[in-house]
Write a structure and sequence with these properties.
By secondary structure, the chain is of the alpha/beta class. Helix content is about 40%, strand content about 15%. The protein has two domains: about 5-210, 3-Layer(aba) Sandwich (Rossmann fold); about 235-415, NAD(P)-binding Rossmann-like Domain (Rossmann fold, 3-Layer(aba) Sandwich). It has 15 helices and 15 strands. The strands form three sheets. An eight-stranded mixed sheet has the order 3-2-1-4-7-8-9-10, sandwiched between helices. A five-stranded parallel sheet has the order 13-12-11-14-15, sandwiched between helices. The chain has a two-stranded antiparallel sheet with strand order 5-6. Strand 1 (about 5), helix 1 and strand 2 form a beta-alpha-beta unit. Helix 8 crosses helix 9 and helix 8 packs across helix 10.
């Protein structure tokens, strides 16, 4: 049986570890978070994923998945640690560096190391340098050179939050070996559970392809968001406009919204901009358009509040605002980097005690509510207390039973669902 060590047991690493373990590998998961380690070793999970819990429970019960904080020997090491951006949008690869230094002492000839973390171009080569410094006795691969003891590849993760387990198995994967035989070794590792195509390229192209996919989506959404501003100015319904344009066989515009959230699309384009700032003009501009959208929405709400107050002879401080949705996208509970949450927080500051939220995917004890002085309302009761209704996320609950404003209420619908 192959032993696979997965370094980083978060939203990507844990599902991957579970899939390796469920498909015949002996898996050692390594993380610095003691709470995560203990939770996993009890057969439970510390992240929200409806399909993952059973797989982890079974693997832990069978003894094929175990979590620890210290790297151990393995045939393959799969690195899935975060690569956040620091202030001024500079990518931070220090977690990868730390993992490289941590696994170096347990490496043996014939091992395969796969980097999955979203990374600026050149990070896999930098990782090899960190490993070489720690293990001068081992020969690491370099492009165009023959013969090495360790195989290294960059293989990006492209699963969609909310359907990770399914997409892990069914998505094609890009296999960026430093050399051809590194790609072959990485393919052997992913064949353990991936049913889709495994496509070979080199490490730098693989790194860039991950960034390209997310930057493409960001640029497309930025175009949709720009259209939403233009349409508002010209009194055109942007949703109808985009659906009409998309009838063209070669046009496929994404949907505008309150901004772009999550930890991938709003972050990864900066990795390209940071590397080639003079050249990545469109990529940067798309980021700026999407980052500017929440402020535009807040202005729209301000106008709505003022209009409601004026037309109902009320003080601004008496106008009640309800925000529909806090998550960064529909039908998940993930509030990280969420434009909906950002907008709601800012509104709560502007209108203290006047703002409440409807978010069907979290409960009223969620710490974020207390932090921002927000109350959570049930969807059914929310309409009775709203003067201004702000749709921020197209959750299925809001689409299934749309709310219609009475002749006084004002709706600011950033998702075009009502
Ligand atoms: N969004 C829009 N309009 C749209 C689609 C999305 O405003 O038409 C917004 C969402 O509301 C959300 C943000 O974009 O705030 C990102 O959501 P998403 O569903 O587009 O993407 P993520 O961040 O959940 O996952 C992306 C995926 N990448 C692509 O689709 C190219 C996923 O496949 C990647 O694995 C993931 O990033 C990642 O980890 O990089």
């Amino acid at each position: 049986m192959k032993t696979v060590s997965v370094l980083g047991l978060g939203y990507i690493g844990l599902p991957a570890a579970a899939m390796f373990a469920a498909n015949g590998a002996n898996v050692i998961g390594v993380d610095v978070n003691q709470h995560a380690i203990e939770t996993i070793n009890q057969g439970k999970i510390h992240i929200v994923d409806p399909f993952l819990e059973d797989i982890v429970r079974d693997a832990v019960a069978k003894g094929t998945l175990r979590a620890t904080n210290t790297p151990e020997k393995a045939d393959a090491f799969v690195i899935a640690v975060p690569t956040p951006v620091k202030g001024d949008h500079v990518p931070d690869t220090s977690y990868i560096e730390a993992v490289a230094k941590n696994i170096a002492p347990v490496l043996e000839k014939g091992n395969t190391i796969i980097l999955e973390s979203t990374s600026p171009v050149g990070t896999t080569e930098a990782m090899i340098e960190w490993l070489e410094a720690a293990r001068p006795d081992l020969k690491f691969p370099h492009e165009g050179q023959e013969g090495h003891d360790i195989y290294v590849a960059y293989c990006p993760e492209r699963v969609l939050p909310g359907q990770v387990v399914k997409e892990l198995v069914e998505n094609d994967r890009i296999i960026g070996g430093i050399t051809e035989d590194c790609s072959e070794k990485a393919i052997e590792v992913y064949r353990i559970f991936v049913k889709a195509d495994l496509i070979k390229t080199n490490a730098r192209t693989a790194e860039m392809s991950k960034l390209t996919e997310n930057a493409f989506r960001d640029v497309n959404i930025a175009f949709a968001n720009e259209l939403s501003l233009i349409s508002d100015e010209l009194d055109i319904n942007v949703w109808e406009l985009i659906s009409l344009a998309n009838r063209h066989p070669r046009v496929n515009i994404l949907q505008p919204g309150p901004g772009v959230g999550g930890h991938c699309i709003a972050v990864d384009p900066w990795f390209i901009v940071n590397k080639t700032p003079e050249l990545a003009k469109l990529t940067r501009l798309a980021r700026e358009v999407n980052e500017g959208k929440p402020e535009w929405v807040i202005n729209k709400v301000n106008e709505a509040v003022a209009t409601f107050a004026a037309s109902n002879n009320k003080a601004i401080t008496d106008v009640r605002v309800v925000c529909y949705g806090l998550a960064f996208k529909p039908n998940i509970d993930d509030l990280r980097e969420s434009p909906a949450l950002l907008i709601t927080e800012k509104l709560a500051k502007l209108y203290p005690g006047q703002v409440s939220a409807v978010e069907p995917n979290i409960d009223e004890k969620h710490p974020v509510l207390e932090k921002h002085g927000l109350t959570l309302k049930l969807y059914e009761e929310s309409q009775n207390i709203a003067d201004v209704m702000v749709v921020l996320v197209d959750h299925k609950e809001f689409i299934e039973i749309p709310l219609t404003a009475n002749n006084k209420q004002i709706v600011v619908d950033t998702k075009g669902i009502w």
